[in-house]
Design brief:
mainly alpha
């Protein structure tokens, strides 16, 4: 019986170590993901600010300027360029928002896995404690002299 308890105890200790390593790995992934989401959030904010500035410029421009640029000799096309930049910013903003939503879903999944692992570790820890107590009790009862038995 003692050998079975020792074997089960070692099995639980091994499982505990494995789950502990999984939890550490999961926590590192979660931290990396949180940092990525923070960067994406910052990029979204910058793009929204740029989008606002370009929208304001476009709203204030009643008609496209037809002046010839003295340096290049070309007709100014600031409005066309602004519209192109605005379209690119809107596309990038939408892309970042989708990436951010995906990241939030993944983060929620990591948090759920982390909670499950912590619960499992708690159960395993309890099992280890019970088996260690049983082993101590088993070794104490095996040392009782036979002459005391009535």
């Amino acid at each position: 019986m003692r050998q079975q308890l020792e074997k089960r105890l070692q099995s639980l200790k091994d499982e505990f170590s494995e789950k502990q390593a999984n939890l550490t790995d999961l926590e590192a992934k979660q931290t990396n993901l949180q940092n990525t989401l923070l960067r994406i959030s910052g990029a979204i904010q910058v793009l929204q600010e740029e989008h606002s500035k370009i929208s304001e410029i476009l709203e204030n421009a009643s008609e496209p300027p037809e002046e010839i640029n003295s340096e290049t000799g070309f007709i100014n096309q600031d409005l066309t360029v602004s519209n192109q930049i605005k379209a690119q910013l809107e596309q990038r903003l939408q892309s970042l928002k989708l990436e951010f939503e995906d990241g939030q879903r993944i983060l929620a999944d990591y948090e759920m896995k982390q909670a499950n692992l912590q619960t499992t570790l708690l159960r395993i820890s309890g099992g280890i404690q019970v088996l260690e107590e049983e082993l101590v009790q088993s070794s104490e009862t095996s040392h009782i002299p036979q002459s005391l038995a009535v």
